[in-house]
Write a structure and sequence with these properties.
single chain, 180 residues, six-stranded mixed beta sheet, 3 helices, 11 strands, 10% helix
């Protein structure tokens, strides 16, 4: 059932200097937008869907403390390459403590800040152009399908750290109490 609800999921990533925005649309389940600024350490998470519209303002250091339960990976950089969207990509195989294996194809031609971004694994060098995640029998593949090298002037607002109207501010503790 969960797989059906995840169909049509997308991940859009925007970055400029040391600021990154990831917009994960998780099918019919929820949308999560994470904006992080490596220089200031600020992070804004926006979640919408069945849980309503919620926002959390935090920092990269707070997230690192929260992620102590995050799975540890054995990362194997493999001497295998392929081209995705015109970028030379290298292969990395990540194996978690339970034996689940995920494959990342990354390029070192794109430099992006990964601080505060859970979709961009800091254990993998470069920028992921494709990844195949395997978690307890659920498999998901994400592949870059479009790359634009310039943001228009309106896009500066993509990196604003203000909570949009209609969102309820909550804490990380509130999020945990919701089972997330």
């Amino acid at each position: 059932m969960a797989i059906g609800m995840m169909q049509g999921s997308t991940l859009e990533v925007y970055f400029k200097d040391k600021t990154t925005r990831a917009e994960m649309k998780m099918g019919a389940i929820m949308n999560i937008t994470t904006i992080s600024n490596e220089t200031s350490g600020d992070v804004l998470m926006l979640m919408s869907g069945m849980i309503g519209q919620n926002a959390i303002k935090t920092t990269t250091s707070e997230l690192e403390k929260e992620n102590t339960e995050k799975p540890k990976y054995d990362v194997q950089l493999v001497d295998e390459t392929k081209t995705i969207e015109g970028y030379a990509c290298k292969k990395a195989i990540l194996t978690d403590e339970e034996g689940n294996e995920s494959v990342f194809w990354y390029t070192e031609e794109i430099d992006i800040s990964k601080k505060g971004q859970s979709y961009l694994n800091e254990d993998v060098p470069g920028f992921p152009m494709q990844y195949d995640l395997n978690n307890n029998g659920m498999k998901m593949t994400m592949t870059v399908s479009q790359l634009e090298k310039k943001l228009d002037k309106k896009s500066v607002s993509l990196f604003e750290m203000a909570i949009p109207e209609g969102y309820k501010e909550m804490t990380m503790e509130d999020l945990k109490s919701m089972g997330m």
